[in-house]
Design goal:
globular
C-alpha cells in the first residue's frame, strides 16, 4: 500500500471512530481544507472544524468505497452517515476527496459532493427547495462557521 493511501485510510478511520486527535494528527500544520460548506479553511481553522464535527457527532459512520494514491497525491470515495440537528435528520453524503501531501501528512484536502442533495437531507423541505440558490448556500456557510468555528 502506498504511504499516501495509508494516511488517507487512517484519516477516514479516525473520522469513523470520532477520534478528533487522530484526525488532527493526519494533517500538516499548513493544511488547506475546502468543501461546499466550509470553503478555504487553513491551518488551525481546518483542525478546529474537524474537532467540532467529530466531537459533536452522535452517530457518525464512514464507509470507504475506494482509495487510490501515488507519489502525487490521493483520491478517496467515501460515504458519511450521521444525524443532524435537533430533530436528528438522517444524512447520507457520498464524498469524492482529493488529497496532496507534505512530509507524509495531508496538506491539501478537497471534498466534493452535492450541496443540494446534502441540504435536502440536512435541512428538509427548505433545503430541497433552496439548496440550489447561492444566497441560501452562503447563509448555510455563515451559520456553519458560527456553530462549528464559534464566529
Amino acid at each position: 500500500m502506498h504511504p499516501h493511501e495509508a494516511r488517507v485510510r487512517e484519516l477516514l478511520e479516525a473520522i469513523d471512530r470520532c477520534d478528533s486527535d487522530a484526525v488532527a494528527a493526519c494533517y500538516h500544520e499548513e493544511i488547506f481544507f475546502s468543501d461546499a460548506i466550509f470553503p478555504s479553511l487553513r491551518g488551525e481553522e481546518a483542525i478546529a472544524m474537524w474537532r467540532a464535527l467529530v466531537g459533536r457527532a452522535r452517530d457518525l459512520s464512514v464507509t470507504v468505497e475506494s482509495v487510490s494514491a501515488d507519489d502525487e497525491g490521493a483520491r478517496a470515495i467515501w460515504v458519511a452517515r450521521y444525524s443532524l440537528g435537533r430533530d436528528g435528520r438522517p444524512v447520507v453524503t457520498r464524498i469524492d476527496s482529493l488529497f496532496a501531501f507534505r512530509d507524509g501528512l495531508i496538506v491539501r484536502h478537497f471534498d466534493r459532493y452535492s450541496f443540494w442533495r446534502w441540504a435536502a437531507q440536512a435541512l428538509g423541505p427548505v433545503g430541497a427547495a433552496f439548496g440550489w440558490f447561492a444566497p441560501f448556500k452562503w447563509w448555510v456557510r455563515k451559520r456553519a462557521r458560527r456553530v462549528y468555528l464559534r464566529e
